[in-house]
Specification:
Elements lengths: L1 E2 L2 E2 L2 H15 L1 H5 L5 H24 L6 H4 L5 H25 L5 H57 L2 H16 L5 H18 L5 E2 H19 L3 E6 L8 E2 L3 H12 L8 E8 L2 E7 L13 H13 L4 E4 L3 E7 L2
Parallel strand pairs: 4-6
Antiparallel strand pairs: 1-2, 3-5, 6-7, 7-9, 8-9
């Protein structure tokens, strides 16, 4: 039998029901003279009832959510199970009375019903104990899997943050600026320093305020603008009411990096990116102008962000791809 992979062997169910029937028939076996027919009927009635209790309680196991597990078994369901069991036991008692006509129905009926209640309560408690234990183990496994997924996502994030291509391009840009006596060289060095300082500070956090994320993004955009100049057009318009909200660190930076990686960025064809807010969403939208030759990609950028939002905020990232624009909606906490 199974309820969402919860299993109790049919062999255990039938064997335990037969053993219980034999145990309840011991008084009949000890009687003198010994009546085999009555003993078999008595044993069969108990075994049949035990089978019913097993299968009834397994099939009616509740589909618990994670919140329900801590509550334990339900008293209401126990009462329903007892009432149902009493009804079934009454029918079995009638059957026993038909098979063994010389029994005194009143005392015999009371004895069978008491036996049924005891069997029902014992089996109910046992089955639900096993089921609760199974669910706790399942939740523990899911938590461990979530931790592993989160660690993997953080590892991928760290690899992307310390992107050797980004550092190489930044140093090349800095070299060009110094050689050409660009007056923004010092600002570039400071922004590069700020960006990696933000990286070291924020990578220890699961969530950071939107205001801190924007500070990191500002430093990143400055570095990219120094490289692409007017070929990169990024506008930011986020409601200040969202600044205290939380989001996974480096989300916006990774999305901008993703835009630059997959789209043409040039003075002849500037890449336009809008970052703005709408209710409880921060939206990143870029015009689609894909490169003819695609860069090598592991395909973990967007998946990384989706997994972190799912694990850390229990919210879904919305991705919309149209003919002209690519839009990502990030929920904020």
């Amino acid at each position: 039998m199974s309820t969402k992979n919860f299993n109790i062997s049919n062999k255990v169910i039938w064997l335990s029901s037969l053993v219980l029937g034999l145990l309840m028939a011991v008084p009949k076996i000890a009687e003198r003279p010994f009546n085999l027919y009555e003993t078999v009927v008595n044993c069969s009635v108990t075994a049949l009832f035990a089978l019913f209790v097993w299968y009834y309680n397994i099939y009616t196991l509740p589909k618990y959510t994670h919140r329900d597990i801590a509550k334990g078994f339900s008293v209401t369901r126990l009462i329903i199970s007892l009432v149902t069991g009493i009804g079934v036991m009454f029918l079995l008692a009638l059957l026993q009375q038909e098979l063994i006509a010389n029994l005194d129905f009143g005392p015999n009926m009371l004895m069978i019903e008491v036996r049924g209640v005891l069997v029902n309560v014992t089996f109910y408690m046992f089955i639900h104990f096993l089921y609760q234990n199974y669910l706790h183990q399942k939740v523990s496994i899911e938590l461990e899997r979530t931790k592993m997924d989160n660690l993997a996502a953080q590892y991928e994030l760290l690899k992307q943050q310390v992107n050797p291509h980004f550092l190489f391009n930044s140093l090349n840009t800095l070299k060009y600026m110094v050689e050409s006596n660009d007056r923004h060289s010092v600002d570039f060095i400071l922004k590069l320093s700020d960006f990696y300082r933000f990286t070291l500070e924020s990578r220890k956090c699961d969530l950071i305020p939107v205001s801190e994320e924007l500070n990191t993004l500002e430093a990143y955009i400055f570095l990219q603008k120094a490289r692409f100049e007017d070929g990169l057009d990024i506008s930011i318009n986020i409601d200040k009411a969202l600044y205290a909200s939380s989001m996974p660190p480096f989300t916006l930076q990774l999305l901008i990096e993703n835009c630059i990686k997959h789209n043409i960025v040039s003075l002849e064809k500037p890449l336009k990116v809008r970052i703005y807010s709408d209710n409880r969403f921060i939206i990143v939208e870029n015009r689609i102008q894909l490169k003819r030759t695609k860069e090598a990609s592991a395909g973990v950028g967007l998946e990384n962000i989706k997994q972190r939002y799912l694990h850390l905020l229990d919210k879904q990232v919305i991705i919309e791809s149209g003919d002209t624009n690519f839009t990502i909606k990030l929920p904020v906490a």
